[in-house]
Amino acid sequence: MSVIEREPSTIPAGQSAVRLDGIDYVELYVGNAYQAAHFYRTMFGFKPVARAGMETGMRDRLSIVMVQGDIRLVITSGLNPDSPISRHVALHGDGVKDVAFRVDDVAAAFQTAVERGARAVAEPQVHEDERGRVVRATIGAPGDTVHSLVERHGYAATLFPGFEAITNAPATHAVGFTEVDHVAVSMESGHLDEWIQFYKEVLGFHQSHHEMVWTKNSSMNSKVVEDPSGKIKFPIQEPSKAGTNSQVQEYLNFNHGSGAQHVAFLCDDICFTVRTIRENGVRFLEVPGTYYEVLEERVGAIQPAVMAEYQELGILVDSDEDGRLMQIFSEPVEARPTMFVEVIERRGARGFGSGNIKALFEAVERQQERRGTI
Ligand code: FE2
Question: Which pTM value belongs to this model?
Answer without folding.
Answer: 0.92
